[in-house]
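FAQ: What does a ligand-bound record look like?

Like this one, built around zinc ion:
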Amino acid sequence: MDFTRGKYVQLLLQLKESGYEFITYADYCSGDLPQRFVILRHDVDSKPENSLEFAKEEKRLQAKASYYFRTVPESWNKEIILEIHGMGHEVGYHYESLATCHGNLPKAFEDFKDNLEKMRALVPVSTICMHGSPRSVHDNKDLWILYDYKTLDIIGEPYLTTDFSKVLYLTDTGRRWDGYKVSVRDKIEEFQEEWNAKGWSFHSTDNIIQALQENRLPNQMMITTNPQRWNNPGIGWFKELVLQNTKNIVKRLVVLVND
Ligand SMILES: [Zn+2]
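The answer part, i.e. the structure of the complex:
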């Protein structure tokens, strides 16, 4: 069974075994990088309790990760944010202001600043990461066409400040590792073809584990997971399987329309 917490732990163990150091996205932005590293990025779209379980498993394995929380009720949980930060992980802001403000840039920037302040009242925040908002016509990153997050002491945004010519990007978007085919925005179009040609496109978590065992992966990686998609075997796991398969059909239609 894939996309269970146990499978995630297997992936972490293999990364460790393969000599990857775990760094946060803030570490990456600060420079001074280890020779071989992986950034574990988690987008907390919903079910923050799943993220808390991930954070605990990582802590057990002495792995650091970056957790991006939205400020909407399905993601925001003050106690969990504090607990994850307390374990030594990074907490960042998973922003979606341009979508929620229907493309109004000044309004969206105000909304962004308010939410950032609300998060900073709990924990230090130095990096941010856009939420894909697949049902919105607005790309949340477009906020930075007019404004500069650096004026708010933000040092990085994974989609804008990662050197993807060196860092391989893997994401579980659509509850599969080759979801760039169905994702509206969670993909790195500039490099995907090159990665496919190098054999760095995977469907299941076991495919990634196998590639690690065969030492076929590059020294620098970002692995993004949405912990709400990872459930222990049972009804939650089955519900997520059915839900994501339905969503992928809808997203594929959106991609076709956008193209
Ligand atoms: Zn998201």
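Follow-up question: can I read anything off the structure? Yes, for example: The first strand starts at residue 21 and ends at 23.
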